[in-house]
Amino acid sequence: MCLTPPAIACSTTRGWPAALLLMLLTLPALAASPEAGRTKAQQCAACHGLDGLSRLPDAPHLAGDSALYLAAQLRAYRSGTRQHPQMSIIAAALSDEDIADLAAWYSAIAISVELPYDGGEALSGSD
Questions:
Q1: Which of 33, 34, 64, 122 has a CB 3.0–4.6 Å from the CB of 115, allowing a cystine?
Q2: Mean pLDDT, consecutive 10-residue segments, the chain of 127 residues?
Q3: Which CATH class is domain 26-109?
């Protein structure tokens, strides 16, 4: 993949805008602080839990989600692209740093999954 600007000749110039965009989107995540996110997540805990496990039936679990996904959703709420009665209000007050820190905290939470077993074998969901 070529990452040079289009003004400089390159054999594969189609991929450089996407690569540049990906790098720019990941920069906030690199500077994010999970520790700061944990402190900031206190306001999220009533619905999403400090551990990222939802306390309400209509609030999603956040633990282990991708930092890029979480940050994108918070930015969408902040900009009004995505609407929710509570989240739109809460996200409106978040800075880019707040969003990066919260995304870093919730994405850093390790989760595990245990499949149900039937007679010693995991159920596959298809019989």
A1: 122
A2: 49 66 58 95 95 94 97 98 97 98 97 83 63
A3: mainly alpha
